[in-house]
Amino acid sequence: MNSSPQIILLTGTPGVGKTTVAALLHQKGFQILSLNDFIISDGLYFGFDYIRESVIIDEEIVQKKLLNLFSTISGYLIIESHAAEIVPAEFVHHIIILRCAPKILRARLEQFRKYSKAKINENIQAEIMEECLIATQEIFPAEKIIQIDSSSSSPDEIAEKIISIIS
Ligand SMILES: Nc1ncnc2c1ncn2[C@@H]1O[C@H](COP(=O)(O)OP(=O)(O)OP(=O)(O)O)[C@@H](O)[C@H]1O
Ligand SMILES: [Mg+2]
Which atom of ligand 1 is nearest to the CA of 154? Predict the structure, then answer.
C-alpha cells in the first residue's frame, strides 16, 4: 500500500499570511511543515545572502530530506513556504497561493518584518509581478493551483476555504 503523503503547498510572497494560516490548520488537526524552519533547523543551506537578506538554500539536500520525510508519513501534509518549487512535484496535490493587495502587504511588512526598505519594496514588486504564481505555473498544472486573496479574508476564513478545497 502506498503510504506517501498528499502535499498541500501553501505559498506566496512574504507577508501574505502563510504561517498564520498554517498555524490555524495545525490547530484544526492537519500535519504542517514550515519549510523555512526545516531548512534552518537542519542546516540545509550554504549561507546567508546579505544583499537579498535571505538564506542560500541547498535545494538538492532539501529535496533529499523531504523525500526521506515523505516516506515516513501519510495523509495530508501542508507545507508552507515561499519557495514552493523546491518540493518534489509528484507528491503535490494542490498549490494554494495566498495573494495580497500591495498596499496591505506593505503595511504588514512594515509592521511585522525587520526588513530593509529595499527588501520590502522587492517583496511588493514580487507580488505585483505575480512571481510566486509564475514560478508555480512553470512546474504544476493549472488545475492544481488555487489563489486565495488574503487582503479580503481573515486567516480563519482562509483556513476554512483550504479545508473545503482539500475535502
Ligand atoms: N488574512 C489576514 N488578514 C489580516 N492580517 C493577516 C492575515 N494573514 C496574516 N496576517 C498578518 O500579516 C502578518 C504576516 O503574516 P505571516 O507571518 O503569516 O506571513 P508569511 O506569509 O508567513 O510571511 P513570511 O513569508 O515572511 O514568513 C502577520 O502579522 C499576520 O498577523
Ligand atoms: Mg512565515
Answer: 1
CA angle 24, 45, 22 (to 5 degrees): 5
Residue 53 CA to ligand 2 center (angstroms) comes to 15
Domains along the chain with CATH numbers:
5-159 (3.40.50.300)
Query: Buried b vs exposed e over 68-98: b needs ≥16 C-beta within 10 Å?
Result: eebeeeeebbbbbbbbbbbbebebbebbbbb
Q: Is residue 1 predicted with pLDDT exceeding 50?
A: no
pLDDT digits over 119-139, tens only? Answer: 999 999 999 999 999 999 999
Could you read off the pLDDT of 46-93 as tens digits, one per residue?
Answer: 999 998 888 999 999 999 999 999 999 999 999 999 988 899 999 999
Measured from the alpha carbon of residue 114, the closest ligand is: 1
What whole-number distance in Å separates Cα of residue 63 and Cα of residue 65?
Answer: 5
